[in-house]
Structure formats: C-alpha cells, structure tokens
Amino acid sequence: MKRKRMLILLAILLLVIPAIPASAAGLAYDNAQLNAVFNCIDGGQISTQSEGGKPKILIFFTTTCGNCRNTLIGISSSEWIKSGETDVCAIEISQKTLEEVRQYRDTNCPNSMIRFGTDESSNACNLAFEYFDIGWESGNAGTPFIALVDANNQLQYFRNGYTSSGEIENYLPDLRPETDPDDPQPPDDGSDSDDPQPPDDGSDSDDPQPPDDGSDSDDPQPPDDGSDPDDPQPPDDGSDPDDPQPPDDGSDPDNPQPPDNRPDKEEQEATPDEGKAACNHVGEMVTVSDATPVSDAVAAYQCIKCGTVYKYEAVANSAYAAFLKETEDIILNAQQGEAVINTRLWTSFHKSVFEAMKSRPDVTVTVNYFYEGNEYVLTIPAGTDVDLLMDENGFGGFRYMDKVLNKQ
C-alpha cells in the first residue's frame, strides 16, 4: 500500500495525472480514527477533528498543483466562508516548509480565512491517502484531496480534483449540527399543547356549525345533487369538481394507450443499457472544451463504439500553457515594436516565451499583472538578454525579472 501511495504521489507531483472531481456520499465514517495535528503557518496547530460544534473542511494540497490553487482561491473568496460557520484548513502534503506555505498563501489567498499548515514530513501525505482510500470513487488520484467532516466529527463526503466553492457550499447543509436548527419549540410541539387550538379542535365543540354541516344542511345544492346521480362516493372523493379524468384514470376510461405506452418506455430504457453492457468498450480521450488563458481544458474518456462517457477530466496546467502560447503569438506578431501582455492570474513565463523574445529582439514586452492583490507593470526592453531572466528550468517569475532588470 505504501509503495502504491508513493507512486501515486510522484505522479501527482509531476503533474502526470490530470485531476477530476469525485465524490462519495453518505460515508458516515468516524473521523476520530483519523486524528492528527499539523503546524499552522500563523502559529499553533491545525487538527483534523471538527471542533466547537462546527463542520470542518480539510483540503490536502501541493503548491505545484494548478487545480489545488484554483480550488483554494475560489473558496477563500467565497461568501459562505466569511460567516465563520465552517472551519476550512489547507494542509500541504509535499513536505514544504512553513515559510514556503506562508508565501504560497500570501500570493494566492491573501487575507483568507483558510488556515494553512504543513508538517514538513510525510505524515500529511500518508494521512491524505487514508482519507483518499476511504472516500475515493473515481479512477483518478488528482489533488486536491478534500475531506468534509460534519459538526459531529463524522467524515461525510470526500472529493478530489478541482472543486468550486459553489460545489462545496452545496454540501454544507449536510455538515451542520442537526440539533442547532431544532428550536426549543419542537419538544413543546411534540407535546399535546402545540397550540390551544388543537385540543379545542380535537374536542366535539369546534363550532356549533360542524354538526350542523354534518347534517343535510351543508347547502341547498348538495342534497339536490345527492338526490340525483350523486352517490355517496362523490362527496367522499371530494374530487368531483376536479376533472372527471383523475378518478377515471384509476378506473376503466383510462385510454388504453397510457398503460400500453408505459411498459414500452421501460423496455426502451432497458434496451440501451443492455446494449452498453454487451459492448466491448474501447476508450479514448476526447476534448470537450479547449483551454483558455484562464481555464483548463476539459476532456472526456469515451467509448468509441457506443459513446458511453466514463468520466470528465480537467487537463492540468492547460490554462497556463494556453497563456504562454497566447503570449508567444502576441510577441511574434507585434507590429509597433511593443507587445502588451495582460493577466490577472499568472505571474511567470516559461522558456517558450523567452524564445519568442529572442526571435523578436526589436520588441519591448510590457506585462500588466497582479501579485498579492496589487497591480504591477513589468517592462522588458527590446534587445534584453533574456537568458538572465530565467532559471535553470526555463522559468522566470515576474517579480524576479523586475529585480534583475532594475538591479535591486
């Protein structure tokens, strides 16, 4: 099992496995069996247990995972987290230091109510996979791993892969204390004294009118109607004014087609299921939507014979790749000696962008970007030796490039 976990973790860290959301409903697993604490970047410790009668959401993430980043950004800016009714804790599982996690938090989720932590060991990773083993239902092990624990410290749901704040919010009603919504009124209502009216109604003396109404004098019309074709059934049905079809539906006048059609539909629904079961599936990945500079591509794993779709996947890092490609095109096609790049999401270039700059040494590149909630402008003059702006892996962060260019 440990070997399996390490192999899966390596795949995640290398971004080999694209993440896909998966959920398990009704786990009802005693979270006390997964009791652990981790160091919080703001001091103190983070417990995996729900505390103070509040639900707890545990997000196991890595700092290099794009789906983790997008999930955390979405939750940190949501309205529901601001109420403080749910504790949200994010635990880094790739052995980053407290300072590295603090920088990650300040960059991506500044002023967030999410509590970030790490233990700089493999304990967090091992625990994350214990949650994974309990709740996993998909064919994918992509991070983040998200454990949703209710106020009674029961693990109720598990998800993995990118998850929006709205999806998390949908689970919250199931995680809140069952006793909180019960006001002291329910036990009082459970007694015979809900209101003074029930016992009064339960007695024979609701009004003098009911016995009078129970007599023949409800209206002059009912006895008249009852005198002719009205059997005692119509008043009992209470549905005579309703169209004659409802009672007739239960009786003979139902057209022969409705009952005949219903079995036909059931047979029709069973037919494709049987066909799918008989299909010798051959699967392939099909792109459902292309990546943009702000959103990952979505792919579906589909049988090329019968068309059955088994799962959908967000293609990890495809949004960043789309951003880089768009930037390259802007630089290569610049007409006025300047290429202007605008981004609110990304804060670095890869080698492919620097190669485009080398191809156009006559172009000045201006980047308008955001960092820690502040707007910045990076200017890379035409003819700059861009090899000085990237590290050995071909990456160059905007803040780092600014320091190099301004010799800070």
Can you describe what's shown?
Strands 1, 2, 3, 4, 5, 6, 7, 8 and 9 form a 9-stranded mixed sheet that branches. A 3-stranded antiparallel sheet has the order 10-11-12, with no helix packed on it. Strands 13-15-16 form a 3-stranded mixed sheet, with helices on one face. The protein has helices at 2-13, 66-76, 98-108, 123-135, 165-175, 185-190, 197-202, 209-214, 221-227, 233-237, 245-250, 257-278, 318-332, 351-359, 398-406; strands spanning 22-24, 29-30, 37-40, 45-47, 56-61, 87-92, 115-118, 145-149, 154-160, 283-289, 298-303, 309-314, 338-342, 348-349, 364-371, 374-380, 396-397. It has 15 helices and 17 strands. By secondary structure, it is of the alpha+beta class. 27% of the residues are buried. Helix 13 (318-332) runs parallel beside helix 14 (351-359). It starts with a helix and ends with a helix. The longest helix is centred in the middle third of the chain and has 22 residues, at 257-278. Strand 8 and strand 9 form a beta hairpin. The model is unreliable at 10-25, 180-199, 217-223 and 246-276 (pLDDT under 50). Helices cover 37% and strands 20% of the residues. The radius of gyration is 32 Å and the shape is globular.
Number of strands: 17
Q: Determine the oligomeric state from the structure.
A: single chain
Q: Strand fraction band? A: 15-25%
Shape: globular
* Structural class computed from helices and strand pairing: alpha+beta
Provide mean pLDDT, rounded. 76
Kindly provide the radius of gyration, computed on alpha-carbon positions and rounded to a whole number of angstroms.
Answer: 32 Å
Largest sheet: 9 strands, mixed
Distance between the termini: 49 Å
Total helical segments: 15
Poorly predicted parts? 10-25, 180-199, 217-223, 246-276
**Helix percentage:** 25-40%
